[in-house]
Amino acid sequence: MIHPKVRSRLRSALAASCAILCLAGAAAPAPLAAQEGAAAVQDVTITDVMLPLGGTLLRAPKLTASGTRLSKDELAAILKSDSSEPWEARLARLDAGSLTIPVLSSEHAGPGDDRQTVTYRDVIARDVKAGRVGELTAAGATVSAVTGPNRGYGTYGRVRATDLDLVALNRLYTVPGDGKGLVQKVYGTIQVSDVTYSDARGTTVKIAHLNGRDLGGRQIPDGWNGAFEIVAAGFQGPNDRRSFAASAADLIEATALGSLDMQGLSVSNTDPQGPVLFEIERATYAAAGSKSGTVLENMTVSRGSLRAHLGRLALSNVSLGPTVEALRKAAAGSENRPGFSDAEMRSLTPTLGGMTLTDLSIDLPLDPEPPKAAPLDPRPATRGPAQSRPGSAKPSEGKIAESKPADTKAPDAKLGDPLAVTITPPPTRRIALREAALSFGPPQDGVPTASRLTLTGLSLPADLVAGAPIIGALPAYGYRELDLDVVADAALDGKARDLSLRDVTVTGREIGTVRLTGTLGGIGPELFNGTLPAATMLMFSGSAKSLDLTIENAGLFERFLTAQSKDLSLKPDELRKEYVTASLLGVPVILGNTAAAKGIGAAMGQFVMKPGKLVLHAKSKEPAGIGFIDIGAARSPAALLDRLDVEAKAN
User: Fold this and answer.
1) Which candidate among 129, 147, 407, 533 keeps its CA 20 to 30 Å from the CA of 395?
2) What percent of the chain lies above the pLDDT cut of 70?
3) Whole-model pTM?
4) Which residues pair with 278 in a beta bridge?
């Protein structure tokens, strides 16, 4: 739902919010219980701390350890930039009641020419023991990227994290692993507020509050630092398709997140064709429990007078398993070309168990009317003092005098009164949907084996469907607003190559209901993954095995009869009798005058006399069905009826 540029900016904001854990953590390693004979508890300050961590350089002009038994030299040795001692061993020796860093900066290079600097203010790590930090806070931060294609600037408000495990963080980012070990928990909670980031392309991302819980992961072959670098670089330079796919799969499988709660997200873009604003009041994610899944609340997209609002969107049973499987396949393949084919991109799609949405509305602007020329006032305009000056033009001398604009204020409005001006919003047309639900069965070759869609309370202006097949005639029958319910339920059997239309129903208020069920043959997953257009493949491979059609009238036929009567200058009863005659006599002739044709004509005649319900059942006499290409090439309807068992009845 988000534009690619927006996704890039949002990733930068979220990545920077998590970076403080690594940055402050590296400058705030953890303690070991004081050894016997150690020095007394004291406050120690060191200056000019500089720590290179992969492509990131951390700088702290001043760091104070309070309530520690370490000496100044011991603390400096732990934070020495060129130390050969592993970080894990050094972190285990750090012991302090708190670590205070007035200014902490992180300078990160890459990918490419990008250079980003994050500067945190008033960083405090409390209760630092055995490689763990009980609480980590920062008063705020600034983010600046002054070079490269992704230039931008941003700020953070207060940042707070609890139960931070610096040893686990160091292992994940810098120590390679096989990706199969246990999940190592990095922190218990994190809260970030008032995030703002703007890039050079005019996109601004804002987040009021961001809360996360139970973030951790597994060690992977390139380490998280290395994998992030490979994925961020894409297919540039020495990076290739196989390494990109492998690193992306490693990161997806290795990351663990308990829950996420984001509030007040807005993304604005100063597009030359008009500013765009996208907002989400709240977005939540939970990995397990009764509230597992992703929920988005009160989403709004606006651009000029076009506005769309969605009350709630919920996603359940989302799995990245197919995505990881497709990436592993690409990583193990022999091809080393950049990018992925269309078929591979489809295979990267995660599986989605279900989706529900409520209260969708779309306000469409009316087509603007051409501007009308203001009528000329034939009366002479009132002129000011300039009119009396010699040589001043008069209305009779070929120039049109300007008329004074009419006063739009109410007679009793006072100067400066905000109520004196009334702003009328531009007229719009609204499409609304009360509720929708979409569910999928297990996928086969990237295609769901079953799906069900229900739309409840879909309302829209009838003129929006004008010109569409069948439904486009509704405005001519007096319908101004359409109120519809829709159900579409289908299942795909890959082995039998059958698509079962279990229920396709459209119901319209004061219109009626059309229900369709049936079975189509010759359809497999390749129909959706092939290189040829689906319609072309369907014409050559598809067949019709069975079809059941039910039509229930709820007012449409009467409106149709009234409109046709006016056009033909006949009374409705007279026209009805003609339609009955045409059904009983004309339809059988057109269909070949077989027994099936006469049955269809008789059922249609009964329906016209008393419009209620019309049911048509057709089944192919051939087990494989009738090919779509045969249906299109049939010489006459009678030629098709000979290959079908047909039953029709009315009311």
Assistant:
1) 407
2) 81
3) 0.77
4) 267, 301
